[in-house]
Protein: Glycerophosphodiester phosphodiesterase
Organism: Streptomyces griseosporeus
Amino acid sequence: MIGHRGTPEDENTLRGLEDAANAGASGVEFDVWWTQDGVPVLSHDPTVDRTTTGHGPVAGMTSAQVRALRTKRGEPVPTLEEALRVAVERRLTAMVELKPTPTPSQLRSLLSVIRATGAAPYVVVHSFNADAVKAVRRAAPELRTALTHQKTKISGAEAARYGTSLNVSRFLVTPDAVQDWHSAGLKVYTWTANWPPAWEKAKAAGVDAVLTDRVGPYKEWARTACGAGTTAAP
């Protein structure tokens, strides 16, 4: 099970990543934008307005300016390097979502940070932007990558063009679809599953892992599900 953005209380912060791990997550998912001076930092939105006390686009600020900000709960905005060091230390799967399609220099910085932190074995680079995933696959075919997909059906053959995994909306998850994706050699993640009916559906379909905002409650549910002789997605 993957902590979506770490935790909703402290999304895309080191505290959120640590809290998700402490609650029992085997991985964390977080979002990446680049600053004006080319440093990858964690942010879901293109601006810092919603999640911090600051204002303006991430891409219009230097890394120093972003680092000086605080979330509304007092946490700093982490760099990708800091987040990956937590993942490596805690042995967490790190689902790194690229929000924009990176420029060549941004792509180099992404790969440099992944390699410098030793995070390659833990990382799954994913994006809604097919071009972003393709760019990473071309530059670093050794990395695990995934298309993040919603709204329309996608075949295993199509999804496999983008990597070794598929990160798919829970509304598209069915046993037949998961079987097709598995037959194409893909690991299947589904998002964002926050309540028992969605967890039950994902389990019945045979997904490999769920992304959830509710790590603790999911762990409690999974213990009950497994105790009943079934297997929940990890």
Q: What stands out?
A: The chain has a mean pLDDT of 96. DSSP finds nine helices and nine strands in the chain.
